[in-house]
Amino acid sequence: MIPYIGYFGSFLTAITFIPQVYKSWQSKSVGDLSILMVLIVVLSTIVWLVYGFAVDSGPVIVANFIVLALTLVLLYFKITFKKQPPLS
């Protein structure tokens, strides 16, 4: 039962960035998204992945691999989407 709880927790963790990725993709805008936050998330997920592989924890590896992928998408959006001019 405990492994299922771990995988369910990893699923919930992994989907946390999906709404932001979807909204950013739809609006083609990430102006309010903090680049520092994105970089911190990338670094923390890399550290968690190293840990997950070191202790052979499937839930940690799965969750952080997905979070890293979604965060890298946000980073790509942050770099490629042009800042929108303010509405007057």
From TrEMBL:
Transmembrane portions of the chain: 6-22, 34-54, 60-77
What Pfam families does the annotation carry?
A: PQ-loop
Source organism per UniProt: Sediminibacterium roseum
Q: According to its UniProt record, where is this protein located?
A: Membrane
InterPro entries assigned to the protein according to its UniProt record, in alphabetical order: PQ-loop_rpt
Protein's name according to its UniProt entry: MtN3 and saliva related transmembrane protein
Q: Which domain of life is it from?
A: Bacteria
Keyword Methyltransferase assigned to the entry: answer is: no
Quick check: keyword Nucleotide-binding in the entry?
Answer: no
How this chain sits in the membrane, per its record, is: Multi-pass membrane protein
What Gene3D superfamilies has UniProt attached to this entry? Answer: 1.20.1280.290
Its predominant location is: membrane
Sorted alphabetically, the keyword list is: Membrane, Transmembrane, Transmembrane helix
The uppermost taxa in this organism's lineage are: Bacteria, Pseudomonadati, Bacteroidota, Chitinophagia, Chitinophagales
